[in-house]
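Cross-posted from the bioinformatics board.
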Amino acid sequence: MDFIIDAAVKAIKHLYQIDVAPAAIGLQETRKEFDGQITIVTFPFTKFSRKGPEQTGTEIGEYLLSELKEVAAFNVVKGFLNISLNDEYWIGQLYNEILPDSFAVAKPNGQKVMVEYSSPNTNKPLHLGHVRNNLLGFSVAQILAAAGYEVIKTNLVNDRGIHICKSMLAWQKFGNGETPESTGMKGDHLVGKYYVLFEKELRVQLAPILDRIYEKNDLSLFKEGQKVKIEALLNSIDKLKVKKQTTPEANTKAIDELNDKIGADQDKIKEIAKGATQLMIETQQMLQQWEAGDAVVMDLWRTMNGWVYAGFAETYKQMGVDFDKYYYESNTYLLGKDIIEEGLEKGVFFKKEDGSVWIDLTADGLDEKLVLRSDGTSVYITQDMGTAQLKYNDYHMDKSIYVVGNEQDYHFKVLFLILNKLGKAGADGLFHLSYGMVDLPSGKMKSREGTVVDADDLMAEMETTAKEQTEAMGKVDGFSEEYKLQLYHTIGMGALKYFLLKVDPKKRLLFDPNESVDFQGHTGPFIQYTHARIKSVLSRADYNAGIKTDIAALDGVERDLIVLLTQFPTVIQDAANGYSPAIVANYVYELAKTYNKFYHEKSILQAEDETLKQFRLQLSASSAKVISQGMALLGIDVPERM
RNA sequence: GCACUCGUAGCUCAAUUGGAUAGAGCGUCUGACUACGGAUCAGAAGGUUAGGGGUUCGACUCCCUUCGAGUGCACCA
């Protein structure tokens, strides 16, 4: 559409003697209720023309009509100049742009981008939240690649730390030597089982300790500093309880708030008290042994992580995601200390009396943030600084995307700010793709309350539902068993992936496990069905992509379809710029819907003459191609038959 | 308490980043060719865009404010 923008710039120069930037010409699609395909908003130019928006629009319109052979007509409604391009132009678009294999294949833009996603902990299986993360990360990587970037997909595996030790300890104590082989369980689920067992046992051990705190006021188990904290919390709780009693019962809101605060304080006490359980003491010891490289612990760690990796590999395969590079925290958790030195020298960080190192971000509207403990060990953000440096050293990428939930917004704000202040190469290209949590109707998923939706279970259920739906429609007669299995997977995953990706990543997402994901309407299977139907028509016809037919005029739906198809490359760029698969998802749906309308209104195989038939076949084939490519950007396959 | 994010039809989501009479799907109701696949298509009903104020030729979009929801505020990761 650049030629219209250029012409509009010339029109304004010619008519009003003003130079406007091409970007100032806001082209948009003409809304369905008006004639035309392209619209220019003329309000911004009235200050140059010193005329009303209608007259300005008319003047520009007349200029375009006389200067551009592609412009067939125009009309002006208020400040909107609606332009109709002639059918010859649109038909030319189909043959010269859309039909060739080069359509929507971006030239390499010479830029490298890293997309880090998934990044699981190795102590339990993946759940629905991870599914959103994985699908988003994979799709964004596909979109960026289609937009011309060289993409590196990475997975930063959190394979060490206290949570893995919990699973390890529980297995040691209660496992009786169980293995994935001996139980037939998937490795990640087996390890997760022991994590749950750990938490269960921990609660048992915690009860008497809490009893001593609340009932007997006995704090002898705790160190001085902890005692002070607990006493302060107990005090706070007492005050809140008094306040609660003096609050009228009718004021339910105030009561709820007080209860929340009491609950929060009690949780804090619980956290401290956990540290006094035998189980946590042993877990801490195990972590120290791990850090010291104790042979037995290391061996167990390697074994159990191995189980988990085998399990994850299966889940990733089902999900259809993959990675170019794995980073492991066991290798990176000590990184970042040299950056601390560097920051101190540059005066970006400062050291407190106890030896801890901080950065003052109050000038940027944030807080003071600890970057190194007083004992000289790293914290989370120290590692991340080091890992960012490591990644950059490995790839020298222009951009680096972190696909991480929005609960870590603050962390990444701080991390990027620090790297910027340190003047690190690549710091400008850092981006946190922050996505919303997946909520259940009951609220947030909580592993402790057993309300998590397991990724493997979910995918299996989707396949089962796909099978039931397909069989109920009696459409699988004559399909081989092998093809059917493949098909159920394609449809089930298509429904799930589309459901999760059609929503703007930033927004939180509601998932109701009791209400199965739809297969009709604005869904993946709807789009897959459209594709299969086109393929069915094509296979019945002697379709030839090469023949250029001589169509004189287009009908409304046909033109709409071509207009939509021409937008595909722009959609890819927009989605890449916004890191949003939702843009692609909504576009492909719009395309499928428009195709279905065309399909119902126009006969293809029984077209009036052979020329028209070939043309409609070409239009159909183009639609199938774009649907298939668009869905591939979402990581969704489209079947030939379903 | 402080900070950030969000609030659009009964439900789940759009709205070309400040543009036209706010659009889809599900659900509800009505209808569709003896032709290419009915997981489809056509139509109806459904809205004070949470409330109020402001900026603008123009506001779902930007600013202020009230209400409501979520998240974050560890020498955890």
